[in-house]
Amino acid sequence: MRYVIRNEAGEIEAVYAEAQDFTEEALDPGDPELLSFVVGDETQLQRLLAQTDQDMLRVVEDLINILVEKEVLLLGDFPEAARKKLARRKSLRKHLTTPLL
Angle, nearest 10°, between helix axes 42-69 and 32-39? Predict the structure, then answer.
């Protein structure tokens, strides 16, 4: 739970991880109003979620590479279209991490 103080308009003004003598209300950490206060408006939440999607894509890509290196998975197990996408990303990432000189 998160503990909040509201202003005269009823908007969240402050958030605390633990109950305080002066906190007025407890909210679930996933409460949309609380998230909006902490992160910003819904558009910002959507951008944050999109960024975590990109981060998770990297995690999945790295996981696939590790499993292929350890021969738990074989690239031949993937459909051709997936193999091409994996090879393309591997090539792009290699070029991004290789110094030009």
Answer: 90
